[in-house]
Predict the structure.
Amino acid sequence: MVRFGRMRARALAGMAALAVTVLGAALLRPAPVAADPTTVDASILDQAGDRLFPEGKHIYQANCAACHDQGVGRAPQFTILRYMSPEAIHRALTTGVMRQQAAALTEDQKVQVAQFLSSRKLAPVTAPVPLAMCSGKAATFDRSEPPVFAGWGLDLAGTHTIPSAVGGLSPANVGKLKLKWSFGFAGSERMRSQPSLAGGAIFLGSHTGDVFALDRATGCVRWHFQAAAEVRTAVVIAPWQVGDAGAAPLAYFGDVRGVLYALDAFTGALKWKVTADEHPAAVITAAPSLYQGTLFVPVSSLEEASATAPGYKCCTFRGSVLALDAATGAVKWRSWMVPEPKPLAGSSNGDEHFGPSGAAVWNSPAIDALRGQLTIDTGDNYTHPVTDYGDAILALDLATGAVRWHYQATKGDAWNVACMVAGNTNCPEDAGPDFDFGAGTILARDRAGKDIVLAGQKSSFVYALDPASGKLLWQTRLGRGGAAGGVNFGMAAMDGAVFAPVSDMFTGVPSEVPGRPGVHALDIATGKELWYTRVGPDCDAAPRTCVAGTSGSLSATNGMVMVGADDGRVLILDAKDGRTLWSFDTAQPLQTVNGVPAHGGSISGGVAPIAYKGELIVASGYAFGAKKAGNALLVFGTE
Ligand code: HEC
């Protein structure tokens, strides 16, 4: 069995009497530190499922663990199953791909195992809230409104800036913003899919894998699509010409099982789907970037968490960027971030390890059309040997995927979640600090018109590189940083300044630098700090339970910065000095247009507030460690 990758998986599948594997999560002590938002979900460390549904756990161990703890074949690993809704798991066991494997289970046992895996009660089948479908004009897509933004980064360069005329918000009118309507997502506890806009609709995915196109004026449902698992990415809509009666644009997104979907943007009908990576822990966290008929798909994984399962043969996932023909899903190229993993020395004693591994890509590529390249940044290596493209910023050739340059910000960072479990042999020796890059790169411009690539890291450093050579121009430390600190999901650049949201949540690792959670503004040309606005309470007294900082993404428009905070507020700051111009606490019960009980919570993940025609659109809720769960989309208006 000293093989690697899928070979090993097949060998395992043949072993009929594989001993029941004890779940890693069950052995975990109470989480010593809150887990890292980009690589590790704190919910993995949460034992609610064990506690609430102990019978389901026994059923899982006896009937499922042999395949799912090891990712046999393409079986999603335990850590991935934990992101599925109980409804989706139950569906897989009754009418889906697992009906054969679950044939010997009673209906009650299926329910128990589904509830154990998702740590949630299955919604009663009898009383689903019916979808509030649109009718008449509200149901029709407006062909005079092609996609308002290019994708998750809002423009190809990933600046997260909204032109003033498009956003319609200004320091003079934001004081008038009032909640117009909100929409509740049944069964969801986090909202990681940044809303996108086209044809008079708001498109977004959800925790339960429900993907919606909602009428922007009223929140009624134009179409609904059920993905197999959680959708964390924004939905990217292909552009069309104004008034083109024959336009048939596609809508693209990925799920946490690593599947990329293409739907008809006007009907929600599935056109094609591809598995972006056969690895059983592969995940699509960030939206693909769409440019001239090619989709550039970033591939990440949850294998860092799989590593906590005792006996898990860690680790074989390799980060990559995949280029697909946007019309058909055909693969054009793939660029791997690490070479093929091999068994490591000492592997023959049954305690197998593999490497190199990791360097996941957690962010949407920024497109540099002028230089014919895209830029991304990467996470850490999961195991030794460490490689050059871990915790690095890279430029890839748009046509071939070849790496043109790379800048490695942190060397020698081999880490996985086993390092948080005492005595777990899957933690690499000399484990690194887990300084992933999660946030997308930006091809920004300074005031003199010079292009500069910007990247923000969990270390709390922001880096500026020359886009032609990858040479470091400056680096600035914003705060304490850490496994869950620093910059997590996305920055914005406008008018010669870069705005960085900083989480700096407590990690228990001593640091001589104090936490500086909130929003930081730097001069793009020099890296000098322009201002810093602290967001959230001072958490020094109760660091494990107190929530401060901004771990999500932010956007900029018309002299303002718009950001969602981990305490649940959405804030609009003056881009000149960081002064708060307007704020609203979304962490409260909301009256929804679709009748689903909802409330907001922490605003994080890839979600940045979006301004359009004088409205402000934000998805709220982020169940994650001490952060606040929520299941709402909120639309504010100035009229
Ligand atoms: C013999 C190995 C094996 C056993 C036993 C097994 N599974 Fe699976 N499971 C797989 C494989 C392989 C897949 C992937 C199938 C695919 O992608 O087509 C999978 C997929 C799934 C999925 C994802 C379905 C989807 O629609 O995305 C769920 C949920 C699941 N299994 C749950 C379970 C549960 C719960 C049990 C125990 C009752 C179980 N499985 C037992 C191998 C197994």
Remarks:
- The chain has a mean pLDDT of 89.
